[in-house]
Amino acid sequence: MLFSEILGQEHIKNHLTKSADFGRVPHAQLFVGPEGSGTLPMAIAYAQYLLCKNTNGENSEGNEACNLKFKNLSHPDLHFAFPVATNDKVKSHPVSNHFMEEWRQLIKDQPYGNLFDWYRILGIDNKQGQIGVDEAQDIVKALALKSYEGGYKVMLIWMAEKMNTSAANKLLKLIEEPPNKTIFVLIAEDEEQIINTIKSRCQVLHFPPLAEDVIKDALIKNYQIPESDAVKIAHQANGNYNKACDVVYSDSEDTQFEEWFVFWIRSAFKAKGNKSAIHDLISWSETIAKTGRETQKQFLSFCLDFFRQALLLNYNADDLVFIEPKTSFKLENFAPFVHGNNIMEISNELQDAIYHIERNGNSKIILTDLSIKLTRLLHKK
User: Fold this and answer.
1) Which of these, 82, 158, 172, 323, has the minimum number of CB atoms within 10 Å of its CB?
2) Spatial separation of the C-alpha atoms in residues 186 and 178, rounded to whole Å
């Protein structure tokens, strides 16, 4: 992967290539950035720069045979670990090596893709993937061998926050004192979910969200869409190139999420003093509970964003509002009901619901409870 193919983040590209040129390569790094900011493509390009002995800040002047292997992600000294779960193909003890074909497909089609896109490819959106102790054992075995080409070995761990405690403990010693010329690159969206003992052993690089102009130029170049449309989509994307691509393809789950959200909000408003509207809230909870846990978590995160946007609009911070409802729902009419007296409670309830769903709580009960609480909070003065 060429550095020139990666959107924006010029200061990070320069830092990584120059540190490699001077031979100052930390043995463990943690790339932290929001979805769609390019942490995974950057990590792959960086691994290619190291393994293929490229120079001058680009992956084109080193070992050509090595660069060719990277086009198919088939270099023997490049290793991957990522969240997995059992599916129709792998019935027990799933590890990343079982899913390399699907992984290469994801990076080819959606290098800026998120965890939800990955679970859809695996067909496990009703489960929660993790990097478990079986994976940790595979990593230890792989890195115990000498490098195939006599140079660096690079282990990329994507969505490192999904590593469970057993796996993290098994890898602690290896990350702290890896074999000679072994490089770990951990990639995460939520730094807080990574245990401190792992984080303290890594050099942390923070990726900012992408600038609107960067996303706009990429959309015009890659999809040949009119500039006016690209500007609008780039604003809606809020620094997330994956979301911008979803909007172009009309593949965004946000349309479905918005329909669920609007029905939920309208039912919550009706429910005050109207017992029959409670039935709508209960049936809504049952509908959402039938979807996979990852879909439920993604939807509740979407709700958090929607409430935040309404709050910003209520306090006249119009420049920061990027959501444009696709239904007849009017954000400006909803905004006055989201204010300083209820936003923290609404936010806490949504985050609690995500937490409980993540820990395999009963979705119907969690969502019904959330709906009844929302009815009270929306009417709070």
Assistant:
1) 172
2) 14
